[in-house]
Amino acid sequence: MKNRKTLLGGGVLLATVASALIIAAGHLSSLGTRTTPNPSASPSGACRQPGPVGSGTVASQAADGRFVACIQVPLGPSNAVISAIRLEPWPNWDSRQAARAGDWLTLTPASGPPGTEVKVSGHVGPWPAVVGKPDAANICWASCDALQGSIAITWSKSEAGRFDGSFTVPAAPWFRGKTISSLQSGRYAVIVPCLPLYLDRKGACATARLQAFFDLSAQRPSPCAASPSCARLQATPMLGPPGSLVSIEGWAPLTGIGGSGFVEIGFEPEMSQILKASGNIATPPADMLTSMRFSITRSPDWATLPALHPVSIQRTGMDPIGVDPSDPRRFAYCGAGSIHITRDGGSSWTTISDAGLEQASAATDYPLPNTLDPDLICNSVALDSRFPATIYASFVTSGFNAGSVAYVSRDSGVSWQPAPFPADYDMQWFGGFRASATSVEPLYYTLFDVAPGPADFTVEQTTDGGRSWHGATLPCPGRGPCLALGALPHRGCSAHDGLQSTLMSRDSGRSWMALGWPDFLSACATAQLIGLADDGVVMVDPLSPYALRVTLDGHTWLRYALPPINGAELTKDNTPGTLEMLPDGRLLIAGPTWYLLAAGARSWCTVPLSGVAHDVDVVSPMPIGGSLWWIDPNAGSALEGAPRSIPLSRIHC
Q1: Which residues of 307-335 are buried (b: 16+ CB within 10 A; e: fewer)?
Q2: How far apart are CA 47 and CA 299, in angstroms?
Q3: Please, which residues have CB within 8 angstroms of residue 214's CB and are 6 or more apart in sequence?
Q4: Closest listed residue to residue 190, CA positions, set 222, 166, 207
Q5: DSSP secondary structure, 349-405, as one string
Q6: Spatial distance between the Cα atoms of 229 and 224, rounded to a whole number of angstroms
Q7: What is the distance between the alpha carbons of residues 274 and 266, in angstroms, rounded to a whole number?
Q8: Preceding peptide of 269 cis, ω within 30°
Q9: H or E element: which one contains 275?
Q10: How far is the C-alpha of 278 from the C-alpha of 274, rounded, in Å?
Q11: I need a surface site. Which of 10, 15, 48, 537 has the fewest CB within 10 A?
Q12: Residue 576 in contact with residue 593, Cβ under 8 Å?
């Protein structure tokens, strides 16, 4: 699949220009929208979406100027606007120098009508040894200040310097700067401006410039030769609620050749923000092509949902309570200088000392305790189902780039060792434990300070209680759709608002893709990724404007509106407590007052909790066995609080 980066070719650039190009390649992910080329809509007007969609996307153009895309309706005013903008190409460094002796370029065929598939063959002589053989070449039609693009090329194994590629002759007018060139008969230059792409210290091409000619026979001049206002945009349907999919079909003068033309499509005001930001070193110039009206309808209500039946619930962030995946009567919580474990559902507790951590961490870059955690209270704990003496725990580090580090004890806390982390990683890039009945996986955040996604972390795994470790992929839940949460980003809530990627696998965990829309959840307060018995998926996120997102078919996501409480609409800023879905599919808000929303209900009811201490922090109560458990910050030690619980059977109105 082509993207904006392809326009830069596969060559090697001097360091003086490489940084600008790297920044340019990231432009399409700006402003909070996921903008990868989107072939997920068909000309029939139906979205055929295998993965996630956003409220903005980039569509590649066919040779005749058509493009299709699939976008998702955001929250917004009812009278919305969808816009399409053109991203102008970066310069191709065409020095206009003459071809060197022995260099040549041929086209087969060398003439034909619009839309002709043309084989490109060429030869280039020796070039600087520091430059490898690229797998793509820049190409221009008419001139390099007109239509530009990039084509894939292969190199001959028998003839040094020989390469082959192909492109499609334009079958529509094209942009030439701010003007439009009409599609009409004539002789047009086909230029490979710099191959391999390598610039000297003056910014000029230091390798080969190749040129050939194509004789175009157009039956009649094309229209749309004056301005981009002839671009067209059509949406199917033309109205829908937030979260619904919209198929986009459109046409515009060509913005690139060889499949390298791109049109960015999305809802306002994001498109206008991109236009406003364009034209600097980080973003190429952009122009508005066309816009159309779209009506955003009301979100469906919670009461319209059928009863939901969760079979797996995953929580964002790092929980101070860890549960044995095979035995809900065995769980642990983080205390001051210790970890407390119960084997009988909370009736009695055993204290495991983590005093050995000071010695174990002394040789690392992050000794414990530290200024952020002088009392040595872990921020997450995990238990091993098959090896009860093995305990896993993580602790915060100090400093400007503070993160978390993971440790393991295989002898019930007598001694501790750092959990292994991948080569070339920092141990404080730890992003959370995942535990199943057969294994435990520490996750490590891969990309420093970038937005979450399917490849934002790597996984270590142990199946023998921490004795040996190896790289792995995430396991699927025992029931329901194969879902997973990515790693908590390094620096937690201070990095990208503490967003964790949401992932789905369609091949039992061998590979993963981004799940939904938006394809992340907040970890600054507990959010949930929930698999349903019928393969549907629910996301509950109290810090998102899309607090409840549901797909019942695994593809089509909708945002569902929740009833107000005491006359006030629920938003991320005024939800009176934590928000979570219980194992039976009801919604619970836990705070000074607890509220419950049953299936089909049109209003919240108040849970009577007389005689029960029910203060909670930002971490939602955790369902364990037949009860809800949480750490009460106002009970027990002032440093660690105390565990509280209430039977799920008491959560009623």
Answers
A1: ebebbbbbbbbbbbbbbbbeeeebbbbbb
A2: 20
A3: 107, 110, 111, 112, 118, 169, 187, 188, 190
A4: 166
A5: -EEEE-TTHHHHHTTSSS-SS-SS-TT-B-SEEEE-SS-TT-EEEEEE--STT--EE
A6: 8
A7: 11
A8: yes
A9: helix 270-277
A10: 6
A11: 15
A12: yes
Tokens for 559?
Answer: 């945002």
CA 256 to chain centre: 27
Per the listing, tokens 């983080």 go with 334
Q: Which two tokens stand for residue 360?
A: 């174990």
92-105 as b/e: b if 16+ CB within 10 A:
bbbbeeebeeebbb
- Give the range among 25-39, 179-193, 301-315, 529-543 with minimum mean pLDDT: 25-39
Contact status, residue 557 vs residue 243, Cβ threshold 8 Å = yes
Does position 213 have pLDDT exceeding 80, yes or no? Answer: yes
Diameter of the chain by CA atoms? 93
Taking the C-alpha atoms of residue 548 and residue 558, their distance in angstroms, rounded to an integer, is 8
Q: How confident is the model at residue 10 (pLDDT cuts 50, 70, 90)?
A: very low
Instruction: State the residue for tokens 């983590």.
Output: 354
Strand bridging mode 587-590 / 417-418: unpaired
| CB 519, CB 453: distance < 8 Å | yes
Distance CA 472, CA 489 (A): 19
Number of residues written out for the chain: 653
**Residue 150, token pair as written in the block:** 């990039």
Cβ–Cβ < 8 Å for 380, 320 = yes
pTM equals 0.77
Task: Tell the residue number behind the tokens 């067209």, with chain if given.
Answer: 232
The mean pLDDT of the chain is 83
Pair of tokens at residue 326: 């095979």
pLDDT number for residue 14: 28
In sequence order, the 6+-apart residues with CB closer than 8 A to the CB of 626 are 647, 648, 649
Q: Which residue has tokens 């192909």?
A: 166
- Confirm if 458 and 469 have CB atoms less than 8 A apart: no
Cα three-residue angle 134-512-263, rounded to 5 degrees:
55
- Contact assessment for residue 649 and residue 626, using Cβ atoms and an 8 Å cutoff: yes
Give per-residue pLDDT as tens, 69-78. Answer: 989 898 889 9
- At residue 602, does pLDDT exceed 70? yes
User: Which residue shows structure tokens 């001694």?
Assistant: 415
Phi, psi of 27 (to 5 degrees): -60, -35
CA nearest neighbour of 587 among 323, 310, 243, 298: 310
- C-alpha of 456 from chain center: 8
Q: Which residues are paired to 312 by β-bridges?
A: 531
Average pLDDT over residues 394-412: 88
Distances (CA, A) of 91 to 99, 181, 188, 523: 20, 18, 19, 41
Query: Phi-psi region for residue 272, left (φ > 0), alpha (ψ -120 to 50) or beta?
Result: alpha
Burial of 622 (0-12, 13-18, 19+ CB in 10 A): buried
497 DSSP assignment: G
What are the start-end ranges of the E strands in 436-498?
440-445, 457-461, 470-472, 483-485
Q: What is the C-alpha to C-alpha distance for residues 502 and 521, in angstroms, rounded to an integer?
A: 7
